[in-house]
Amino acid sequence: MTIIQPVPDAIKRNWGWLFALGLLFIVLGTIGLSMTVGLTLVSMLFFGVLLLIGGCSQIVDVFKSRQWRLVVWHAIIAILYILAGSLVIYDPFIASTLFTGIFAGILLLIGCSRVIMAISMRHMAERSWVILAGVLSILLGTIIFMQWPWSGLWIIGLFIAIELLMNGWTYVFLALAIRRSSY
Predict the structure, then answer these.
(1) Does 89 reside within a domain?
(2) In 65-154, which residue ranges form alpha helices assigned H by DSSP?
(3) Looking at CB atoms within 10 Å, which of 47, 87, 92, 96 has the fewest?
(4) Which H or E run includes 64?
(5) Among 38, 40, 30, 47, CA closest to 100
(6) How far apart are CA 41 and CA 31, in angstroms?
(7) Average pLDDT over residues 47-59
(8) 125 burial via Cβ count (<10 Å: 0-12, 13-18, 19+)
(9) What's the CA gap between 84 and 94, in Å, rounded?
(10) Rounded CA separation 32/38 (Å)
(11) What is d(CA 76, CA 88) in angstroms, rounded to the nearest whole number?
(12) Which has more pLDDT, 137 or 128?
């Protein structure tokens, strides 16, 4: 049984902002598709900066909690954050290549796990969807590995651009549905 909730008036009045946000995401995703290498590098640099900020914040916390019994481990973790952030910022190409290789391996493991899970679901009709998801994960992981290490230069940017496009179209269709419900 599906319960349909009424759309609040504030959302009905502001559907245009959601629509505009969707259009902005579509434009950004389209631009991102044309510059996947640049988007990958920018995302790696951003990730490196976040690691540095996290590490520096932890260093501050280390000095504030010197009496803590495990402060040495906390300091080691902070230093590792700073080291990792510095390495990512120093060479975002290598960082993206390593992340992409790890990601491709994870996709292969997920795909194999889904296929094994589907085999154990012999009695369920829905297992074909699980098999399909598993095979697609294996296929995607294999494609990424076949292009590796060069796929490390563009795959992260491609996924970010696709995510922007998907969110953009979702917001556009959601805004249009809200608009239709208000009339």
Answers:
(1) yes
(2) 71-90, 92-119, 127-147
(3) 87
(4) helix 36-64
(5) 40
(6) 15
(7) 94
(8) exposed
(9) 12
(10) 8
(11) 18
(12) 137
- In 3D space, the residue among 169, 175, 156 whose CA is nearest the CA of residue 42 turns out to be 156
The DSSP secondary-structure symbol of 59 reads H
Let me know: does 18 contact 175? Beta carbons within 8 Å.
yes
CA–CA distance, 24 with 70 (Å, rounded to integer): 47
The phi, psi pair for 162, rounded to 5°, reads -65, -40
C-alpha closest to that of 156 among 37, 31, 34 = 37
* Burial class of residue 152, CB neighbours in 10 A (0-12, 13-18, 19+): buried
pTM attached to this predicted model: 0.68
**163's tokens:** 């995510």
Q: Is residue 3 part of a domain?
A: no
What is the end-to-end Cα distance of the chain in Å, rounded? 25
CA distance 15 to 69: 53
pLDDT at 181 over 70: yes
Q: Does pLDDT of 50 surpass 90?
A: yes
Residue 139, domain extent: 16-181
How many domains, the chain?
Answer: 1
Residue 66 has pLDDT above 70, yes or no: yes
Most confidently modeled of 4-18, 86-100, 125-139? 86-100
Residue 86 lies in a domain: yes
